[in-house]
Write a structure and sequence with these properties.
There is one protein chain. This protein is an all-alpha fold. It has 3 helices and no strands. The longest helix has 29 residues.
């Protein structure tokens, strides 16, 4: 855990918590608004959450070379998350213009 300073840990952990909250609130918005297309954005955000958790896990174990595969998984989940969030945004836009 010594790889990051306390303020940096605070940013990492709060970012993960905020991302979980955003996923939850978007899901709630979809229910309240009666616009289920927004639920796709919640799903589309999950790979980015996995990416953030990979980063936190790797740093928690002092950037251990044995966990180097987490860096690769983090990068892959970032790409996948960007694509799925983009696809979800497009789907919401399409549903609004049908």
């Amino acid at each position: 855990m010594h790889a990051l300073s306390l303020p940096t840990w605070m940013v990492h952990v709060s970012s993960v918590i905020e991302w979980i909250a955003a996923i939850y609130f978007i899901w709630q918005f979809a229910d309240v608004s009666g616009w289920p297309a927004w639920k796709w954005l919640s799903f589309g955000m999950l790979p980015a959450l996995i990416s953030a958790m990979c980063a936190c896990t790797w740093h928690f174990f002092d950037n251990s070379p044995a966990l180097g595969w987490l860096v690769i998984l983090q990068a892959a989940m970032t790409v996948v998350g960007n694509c799925t969030a983009c696809a979800a945004a497009w789907y919401i836009w399409r549903q609004a213009h049908v």
